[in-house]
Amino acid sequence: MTDTKQILAGCVILYECDISIDANLATYAKDLDMLVVLDNSASYNPAIAAVVAGYDNAEYVFNGANLGIAAALNLAVNWARARGADFLLTMDQDSCFVDVPFRSFRDRVLSLPFVKDLAIAAPCFLAENTMSTTEINSRTVITSGSILNLANQSRIGPFDEQLFIDEVDHDYCLRAHDFGLRVVTLPDVRLEHRLGEPKAVSLFGKTVRWNIHAPIRHYYMVRNGLYMASKHRHRHLGYSVCRLASLSRTIAAALLLAPQRRERLGMVVSGIRDYVLLRMGPRHAHRSVERRVAP
Length: 295
Prior knowledge:
Layout: E1 8-14, H1 22-25, E2 34-39, H2 46-53, E3 58-62, H3 69-82, E4 87-92, E5 96-98, H4 102-110, E6 118-125, E7 136-137, E8 146-149, H5 150-156, H6 168-178, E9 182-192, E10 197-203, E11 206-212, H7 215-231, H8 237-257, H9 261-276, H10 283-293
Parallel strand pairs: 1-2, 1-4, 2-3, 6-9
Antiparallel strand pairs: 4-8, 5-9, 6-8, 7-9, 10-11
């Protein structure tokens, strides 16, 4: 694949996938040395298994339960490292590469002059309007579409499974910075990635745009946002302050402008309560415990 013969593995994490992943896989799967598709869905999907079986370098792993993003990423890292991989591409089910072929992104990342100090390299979102060809130092990036240097991943440590979903990638990036490692974005490489349902409304004469998520996401956004602000406040105070401000704006928009406001409010309150009570991991685990001990 490259002159240095570095081995690049890939992983895709699925959860109740309601789209055909064939077109998305086609944008990168054949340019990987190996690929694992980890399915966190409750039910086995033979159609997805058949699509994955069409690639000689790919393996479908059905987990049988929602392990969360962090646990699935840790499984993927261990899977790749056990097979001798040096780098790992991490993808979501609804993401694909556009404009610039993935192999160009791959070759550029693996040939970066500071690759030995690289923690993670990410593409840009499709909506971002820049054609700069110079990599940008970033405080945080998302894992979807990103390439991890597995040699440095062992220094940074595993993804924090207490987060389950939301903030998993940001936590990893901040810990990478703690070791003096590089987190970069390649702005001319575009990734198509769905972040909720786009919404625009007119408010006081101005158009407000944001992405609407399912109500349950507000539980994780609030709980994990508070957890992250506290966890990283000593080394990354600026991030913690900005994260709390951004979280406040997101929740305000959801409660004032989005549908299902009462349900969203309940999730916000639950998120705050569980953060205070140090209840981390999947929310359903806490609900099960509460039902068992209820009078």
